[in-house]
Amino acid sequence: MVEPVGNHYVVARPVYSENLFNEEHDKLHRYHKSFLDHLKLYFRCSPQRAKKFALGLFPVFSWLPAYRFREWILSDIVSGVSTGLVAVLQGLAFALLVNVPPGYGLYAAFFPVLVYFIFGTSRHISAGPFPVLSLMVGGVVIRLVPDDSSGNGTATNSSAINDERVMVAASVTFLSGVFQLLLGTLQFGFIVIYLSQSLISGFTTAAAVHVLVSQLKFMLQLPVPGFIKPFGIIYTLESIFSQITETNIADLVTSLIVLLIVFVVKEMNDRYKAKLPAPIPIELLVTVLAALISYFLNFEEKFNVAVVGKLEEGFKAPVAPDVGILQKCIGDSISIAIVGFAVAFSVAKVYSIKHDYQIDGNQELIAFGLGNIVGGSFKGFASSTALSRSGVQESTGGKTQIAGIISAVIVLIVILAIGFLLEPLQKSVLASLALGNLKGMLMQFKEIGVLWRTDKYDCVIWVVTFLAAIFLGLDIGLATAVAFQLLTVVIRSQVPSCTILANVGRNDIYRNKKDYTDIYEPEGVKIFRCSAPIFFANIEFFREKLISAVGFNPLRVLRKRNKALRKMRKMLKKGELQVTPVRLICVASPTLESDEELDNNSIEELDKPTIMTDLPIQINWGAELPPGITVPQVDIHSIILDFSSVSFLDFSAMRILQKTLKEFVRINIDIYIAGAHEGFVEKLERCEFFDEEIKPSMFFLTIHDAVLHILLKKDIASSPKLKPAEEKSSSSDYIIIPSNGLRSRAGTV
């Protein structure tokens, strides 16, 4: 019963152990489904489930019939046109990262959008090329098809190398799509939880640095080979600076001008986005202007600049992936699949929260998997979503993936009709546009300071991920970062926070005793909290912390007591001890015996409970003992273990915990466990944790229940008037928590 009194409350209820609470409130014994039961439920078929499955697999049929045509169509058209123009330019630019001819970037910007329209669950992200994924695919391309080192750079050789590279990019994209589709089908959408925000931030920042370095060769027009190996970025920079005197000045000047214009206008878009009806399409304007200048001033012949060149009209016939290539890029495909999904899901989650709708991680995996399979079949490369492109689609008013379809139409027009207009465009301009989209990722360096102040573990994860991805490469770096992140989780759970609690404010609140001055600690009671799961890796740490908290080793005390009892029995036999009603008195000089003589029997006997039934009196270990007999003093009688933060306890830890608790029980210390989660006791029963020494009655609902039980038990033991109450169950013991003190039924504490 709870009675509010102003801003206080008074609770009157019995002191509950777990068993008593379950008996009084008729706890139900629920049937827990087995794996087979879940399988049967999953594959059970009904019209409702079939409809739900169909709508889940094809989300377009759930939102398209409810499309508000008059309200949304204009916004989607404006958004689609803007996004399509950006997609064209990013497709051409990111193709340079993949080391394939720019035209193939248009395929990567077209097919994934069509597939995502049907299978995707986000209304606002723009599917297509992403610089980090493009760079990862480009790494595989360079590794399997390196640059021509013979110096025979004929058109025939270049064409053959390009064809091989396109095939590698398409094959690795196809395989990454297969992995994504497989993970989505098997409901592995939760895999993204193993990539923390700190890891993703550090990884994408490192990828942005890789993109920056990889584009320098296009901005300077230098023949820099690809170095796809650990510390490859160092070798790339070394190659660039060794040839720096051969820089094409026209490309360098063009790149710097484009970069300056793009950065300035993007900054204006960010600063005045509330006043602008739509962001200024600076990429489009710069591209059109640069293409016109390059064409009319004939930059290719006058300054020997590298240009986009001929863009083939129409589509290539779909091709099957090369099995030989697939065998060489399995690991890369897995990395690309996971990173692509993680980035896309993170962006989709942001917009789903902002616009209040649900997205399905498993369905997103299926959508991007199918998009990559289709895109790879048509010689595109891996897709996800670019943050800048999705930002354009959402900020220009896009309501649904109708905007995505319209953006695909813009890309289609370029592929089929007007692609030739981009042929005189310098590759250095595309490189500058790619770098212009990296500002957001490069600005993530600011997170280091914030993370250091808020969570040093996350800061270390960020730095390690960044350095690993920079120096070891994106694929090995990602694997290293994930392994390191999991290691930090193990370390944090292996060294959990363990504290001694005390009552604060004379009520039912218990906090770390080091944090408060107004505390109350019941005499002879230690309250110990472990704030982590207990398992095989940290159970020894838990045991050491518990022993340190109570101030003695129970096993050592037990052995000392058993040795003392053995010595007393020998002294009684020799007549060296005299029995009195109170204690044993030494009447003769005791025979000195070494510990070795007392240890003749096996150590297991010393670890058994102390037995005094054969002695004429019960030994009071706190009183004076006969000369020559000493045992460690124990000044507590009860230990309460707060398990409210212990989410699980594995079998290995369970056995060591049982052994530790028995050691305390055998030296007459009562053990209580409070706050254990639902099903904890049942699991212990299934694992045969309980016996004559360790009983289920040690479990209590809260720390306060256990404390009041101990205090009442102490009152009963010290007051004969309360003896009859001991025969009653603890259901007659009530918690009364007024605003001014802590009391048990037996009196005020």
TrEMBL record:
The chain crosses the membrane at residues 77-98, 104-121, 128-146, 166-184, 191-213, 249-266, 278-297, 334-353, 365-382, 402-422, 460-487. Coiled coil: none annotated. GO terms for cellular component: membrane. It is a multi-pass membrane protein. It comes from the Eukaryota. It is found in: Membrane. PANTHER family: SULFATE TRANSPORTER. Its main location: membrane. This is Chloride anion exchanger. SUPFAM superfamilies: SpoIIaa-like.
